[in-house]
Design goal:
Strand 14 and strand 15 form a beta hairpin. This protein has 471 residues and is an alpha+beta fold. The chain folds into two domains: 111 residues, no CATH class; 289 residues, Tachylectin-2, Chain A (5 Propeller), CATH 2.115.10.20.
């Protein structure tokens, strides 16, 4: 029979067992706490890594987007250069076949070479990321390229891509703005005589967050007090439709800054809004004209609405309808409105038909007020394809620097160079009113010639006293 342990020893052993159990539990707790802390640190590190990865992906996407845009611009210039080289080859062959007679119309090949060399140099500078060098090359080649394209007899003043133009006169200088090109979101050129133009660069280097890059079209700039306000259309990234926004600057050269969170005008139910144009009534009230693309049973439509005194917010209760397509030559399209006060009357110039065809043309209407109603002046276009101008459109009226002569700027294709990737170059013609009707005069001052395209005859020939763009 085993002897019972003394009570004191039993208590001692129990105490030791309890102590050992406590130590084991404490160790387990310590291990658990340590494991949890390690897990927390690991999770925090993972979260940081994931955030850094997201930022890296965003940077990569932005870089890819910029690279894609630069590549598209490079390819566009390369296509244009190839086209010009092909035309040179064809003309040179024709020259050889005809023993140097008619094909180049006495064009000096040195001039042609100078133009091509300048365009190639600009392309190489853009491909290398140097916009200033590209601008310098374009400046150097502008004169020779203007001669290659036929000179200024047709009113051609800038022989490079310049669609949807808008011209602003400030002091003795003219500032012209146009749809994006290799120069950036909004290209800008300047002149002191309306005949010689120099590129400046990008007037709108940064876009608001809602705007999709590469979708910037049809700028219009107004001077309101000491501020310059640019209206332009941009793709709404969330839906894809074009919408209208505004940007401000203290100088007509910019840079213009857009701080908007949402567009100024965006008629999503009508297919989007585009082609904004500012109009300041004789009383000083600022209005905005634009086009809705057309949707849900409504055709493309021209609208107007009052703006606030700063020109940066809508002030009227709702937009007023100015025009819809109603004439055969418009082919169901009206766009690019530009209202202009001339001889005590509000004239609304606009474009009709498809922009990428030779049927594109300029029309005119007379408006009782800045909000309409507007009545078209004739059944035929005011100005359509003729001579060296094909598919004229995007009209913008302005006064010369002395305030004595109204002018009309517009873009157009050159013969046999219609549609993308060809360029729409810039023309300027004198503008007059005869018998209450607007007349676009030839650059030479001769009567307007009849049209040569399917857009229908231009307005009846009318003698013009002006002798070309005056600066």
């Amino acid at each position: 029979m085993a002897r019972a342990l003394p009570p004191r020893r039993v208590r001692l052993m129990r105490s030791v067992a309890v102590l050992l159990a406590c130590m084991l539990v404490g160790a387990a707790i310590a291990v658990e706490v340590s494991s949890r802390m390690d897990l927390h640190h690991a999770q925090a590190s993972f979260a940081r890594t994931r955030t850094e990865l997201q930022h890296t992906r965003a940077d990569l996407n932005a870089t890819v987007g910029s690279l894609g845009k630069a590549t598209r611009e490079r390819d566009k210039l390369a296509t244009s250069l190839r086209s010009t080289n092909q035309e040179l080859a064809v003309n040179t062959q024709s020259l050889n076949n005809d023993n140097g007679s008619i094909s180049l119309q006495s064009l000096d090949l040195t001039t042609l070479h100078s133009c091509l060399q300048g365009v190639a140099s600009a392309y190489q500078s853009l491909a290398g990321g140097s916009l200033p060098k590209a601008i310098s090359a374009i400046n150097a080649a502008s004169g020779s390229c203007l001669t290659v394209e036929g000179g200024a007899s047709s009113g051609l003043v800038y022989p490079f891509d310049f669609p949807d133009p808008d011209v602003l006169t400030v002091g003795g200088t003219y500032f012209a703005y146009a749809t994006n090109s290799a120069a950036g979101n909004i290209q800008i050129i300047t002149s002191t005589d309306l005949a010689h133009w120099s590129p400046v660069g990008d007037a709108l280097p940064h876009l608001p967050a809602w705007a999709a890059p590469g979708t910037i079209w049809a700028p219009s700039v107004a001077q309101i007090g000491n501020t310059f306000v640019m209206y332009y259309s941009a793709g709404f990234a969330l839906s894809g439709e074009q919408c209208i926004s505004d940007a401000v600057a203290t100088s007509p050269e910019g840079p213009f800054v857009d701080t908007s969170v949402l567009p100024l005008v965006c008629q999503l139910n009508l297919g989007g809004s585009i082609d904004p144009s500012a109009f300041i009534d004789p009383g000083g009230t600022v209005y905005l004209d634009w086009k809705s693309e057309g949707a849900n049973g409504q055709p493309p439509t021209l609208w107007a609405q009052q703006l606030d005194a700063a020109g940066t917010s809508l002030a009227g209760p709702s937009p007023a309808q100015l025009l819809q397509p109603s004439l055969s030559w418009e082919d169901g399209i009206v766009e690019a409105p530009d209202m202009f006060w001339l001889d005590g009357q509000r004239y609304l110039f606009y474009a009709g038909a498809a922009w990428q065809t030779d049927k594109y043309a300029i029309g005119a209407a007379i408006c009782s007020t800045a909000l309409g109603p507007c009545t078209k002046t004739q059944s035929q276009p005011l100005f359509s394809s003729q001579g060296d101008i094909v598919g004229p459109g995007g009209p913008t009226a302005f006064w010369n620097s002395s305030g004595t002569s109204p002018e009309l700027a517009f873009a157009g294709w050159l013969p046999n160079e219609i549609g993308f990737p060809h360029s729409r170059v810039l023309f300027i013609r004198p503008l007059q009113v005869t018998g209450g009707m607007p007349v676009i005069c030839p650059a030479t001052g001769a009567p307007v010639a009849p049209a040569s395209s399917g857009a229908g005859p231009t307005a009846p020939p009318t003698a013009c006293s002006s002798n070309g763009p005056s600066g």
